[in-house]
Specification:
The protein is of the alpha/beta class. The protein is about 35% helix and about 15% strand. (2R)-2,3-dihydroxypropanoic acid binds near residues 60 and 294.
């Protein structure tokens, strides 16, 4: 009997909704499985779904580890809808020749905006004010009602002057702030001048800054980068903002420090064990909490989805992806 060759379609697993018609765009080029239905165990679903997959388009909540890669013998490309790649075992992907891509740049401005929103909200007690008004506690103007911290003209300390750190720094010029930063690697002094920022040692930054905004990628080296010792260096009036990854800050140490009144307040978009949040932080009125929405504008999420799809299709079609993780 004559054998008939059957062309095997390229199969892609998608683990989340892709704004802006991303899933439909993928489906025009490859066979798409997913996203998983609400309420199903994502991990169990994913381990089964990747068995025949050539590509995976995942979210930052999906662990791409050896167990998953072992379950996916055909996998050639992983595209994550995030800049951060701390949920992906890059070494294991490299060993298997799997291309990994991410979605940087397009979320820079939205994330910088949210860092500023948290800074202003924490300094000016916006959330406390909102709760007070809703609870019927606003009984008229008073000279001592919800006194907060001035932002204009103060010192902003940026920990990690990458793309987002720089975007946060640029916004500070409108507030006539003194901007100091710490970065692991040297930044071109001309760029410092252009941005109007000065490099200092980390301890000096923590001691001098009225606002400390953290913009570090999460790696083994940055785990609890802001810990008990670093928090103790911050001023009693200072505000800590974290829009990077939760575990860059020691959450239990931060709760202790805030309970003790130093630093004065915090604005947190990310948490060490998401979606769980250290329960003591939930009880502290001087902490503003948002649910990891740094990049959550319609425009940015659509751009991220577009880039994630472009990346995956390029990798699967043997072209150079626009944003490969080296
Ligand atoms: C990222 O892309 O890593 C962000 O945390 C998601 O907004």
């Amino acid at each position: 009997m004559q054998e008939v060759a059957v062309a095997v379609a390229t199969r892609v697993v998608v683990t989340g909704f892709l704004p802006g018609g991303g899933t439909e765009r993928l489906a025009r080029e490859v066979e798409v499985l997913g996203p998983p239905a609400e309420g199903v165990d994502r991990r169990v679903w994913l381990l089964e779904a990747v068995r025949e997959a050539d590509g995976l388009l995942c979210l930052l909540v999906d662990r791409v580890d050896r167990e998953l890669l072992d379950a996916a013998p055909r996998l050639r490309a992983v595209s994550t809808l995030s800049t951060g790649v701390d949920h992906i075992d890059l070494a294991a992907c490299r060993e298997r020749g799997i291309v990994v891509t991410h979605s940087p740049d397009v979320l820079t401005e939205a994330t910088a905006d949210l860092a500023w929103a948290l800074m202003l909200a924490a300094a000016r007690r916006v959330v406390e004010g909102d709760r007070l008004v809703r609870a019927g506690g606003f009984h008229g103007w008073r000279p001592d009602l919800l006194l907060g911290a001035e932002v204009y003209g103060r010192t902003l300390g940026i920990v990690g002057l990458g793309r987002i750190g720089k975007a946060v720094a640029k916004r500070a010029s409108g507030f006539d702030m003194n901007v100091i930063y710490w970065n692991r690697t040297e930044i071109n002094p001309m760029e410092d001048e252009w941005l109007g920022v000065s490099r200092v040692e980390l301890d000096e930054l923590l001691a001098k800054a009225d606002f400390v905004s953290v913009h570090l990628a999460y790696t083994a080296e940055t785990h609890h980068f802001i810990g008990r010792r670093e928090l103790a260096l911050m001023g009693a009036h200072a505000v800590l903002v974290n829009t990077s990854r939760g575990a860059v800050v020691d959450e239990a140490a931060l709760a202790d420090a805030l309970e003790a009144g130093r630093p004065a307040a915090a604005g947190l978009d990310v948490f060490e064990r998401e979606p769980a949040v250290e329960p003591r932080l939930l009880r502290l009125p001087q902490v503003v909490l948002t649910p990891h929405i740094g990049s959550a504008t319609r425009q940015t999420r659509e751009a991220m989805a577009r880039l994630a799809v472009d990346n995956l299709l390029a990798a699967l079609q043997g072209r150079r992806p626009p944003a490969a993780v080296e």
